[in-house]
Amino acid sequence: MQVRAAALTALGALEEKRYAKLFTKALESKSYRVQGAALQALLPLEPKQALARATAFEADNKGALTVALVSVYGQAGGQAQWPLVLRKFDAAEPNAQFDMLAGMVPLLGRLEDPSALSEGIKRMKDLAVKFKAYGVAEPITRGLRQIEQQQAARPTAAEAKSLVDAAVKEIQDAK
After folding, report:
1. pTM assigned to the model
2. Most buried one in 20, 73, 78, 97, CB count within 10 A?
3. pLDDT tens-digit profile of 143-169?
4. Residue pair 75/101 in contact by the 8 Å Cβ criterion
5. Chain centroid, CA 122 distance in Å
6. Which of 106, 112, 150, 149 lies closest to 124 in space, CA to CA?
7. Hey, is 11 helix, strand or coil?
8. How far apart are CA 141 and CA 96, in angstroms?
9. Residue 131: is it exposed, middle or buried by C-beta count within 10 angstroms (0-12/13-18/19+)?
10. How many Å separate Cα 9 from the centre of its chain?
């Protein structure tokens, strides 16, 4: 299954529509790794279909499939998916949390819910502070600034800026 997942990932990187049916078929696999690779590969080709298919995996997902689910929700989801993304992030091991940031950042950039922004930014800040010694502060800070930029034209822009500024300061001040 690892080889099949790797093949799907490689084909997915090509972003060619002709592979969409292959990715859709691979979603029927029993392997979380294969399902995750297929879902990730389908996302840039057919975001609406990837979003619809992702919901079928909400009740049963682990590892690569959970990361793919968060990625799909990050790119194509909205406020309705935020509670699940937050639960999955909180339940994940640190390495998976880092992988999930690629989905969380764009989702937080689109949400107009101050409590969701606060929750997400706090978790990113906490992760950066806890693992700062491992060089994660800079990429997480870039993600926070990306959220701030995406929020700039939204009603929550001022709050997002304030939350991001405070989080970045705390990351910088951490030992």
Report:
1. 0.89
2. 73
3. 999 999 999 999 999 999 999 999 999
4. no
5. 15
6. 106
7. helix
8. 18
9. middle
10. 17
